[in-house]
Design goal:
The protein has 173 residues and is of the alpha+beta class. It contains 5 helices and 7 strands; from the N terminus they run H-H-H-E-E-H-E-E-E-E-E-H.
Length: 173
């Protein structure tokens, strides 16, 4: 009985993840081969790079196309959902906008090929009220979900200043 209940829960979870409450989960898809995972990594790296280019080029529609409806972005304030994210990021698409650039240095794909993550450095430059350019650097982490058409949508994004390591031993003594 417990085994049957566990199987049913797995089927329900798979159905909900697929977004179809009516259809039961079918047979499991075969796991991607090593080459397919490498191709997915390449595809995700290209997607993250295009996402960054959409901001650099102030291409609003292209930027919006990368964001999942249920996405969450965390960088200072937490933004839940695509609409809130677009409202929060509108400043980067205005004239005189702060300059935000980033690139993926780490790209990993989950073994089933459905989720991926990207991580890398970002730099934000903006002009202060006194006219000096203020620059802030840090790291971003993004989680992406592969769509039915094999494209990727970002579902979680966070940026923060670089992590501070412990002080050298000479400074602690």
């Amino acid at each position: 009985m417990i085994l049957l209940l566990a199987v049913l829960l797995i089927q329900v979870a798979a159905t909900v993840r697929a977004g179809d409450d009516a259809a039961p989960a079918g047979p499991a898809e075969p796991m991607p081969s090593e080459q397919e995972l490498l191709d997915l990594k390449r595809s995700l790296r290209e997607t993250e790079t295009a996402f960054a280019a959409s901001v650099a080029n102030q291409d609003w529609d292209r930027f919006a196309s990368f964001i999942a409806d249920e996405a969450i972005f965390v960088s200072g304030a937490v933004q839940h959902g695509k609409q809130a994210i677009l409202e929060g990021w509108a400043v980067f698409f205005q004239e005189g906008a702060p300059k935000l650039v980033w690139k993926p240095e780490v790209v990993e794909i989950q073994d089933d090929g459905e989720l991926g993550m990207t991580r890398g450095p970002f730099t934000l430059e903006q002009v202060s009220p006194d006219g000096t350019v203020v620059s802030q650097s840090g790291l971003f982490n993004s989680v992406w979900e592969r769509q039915a058409d094999s494209s990727w949508k970002v579902i979680f994004d966070a940026g923060c200043p670089p992590c501070q390591g412990p002080a050298p031993a000479s400074e602690r003594d």
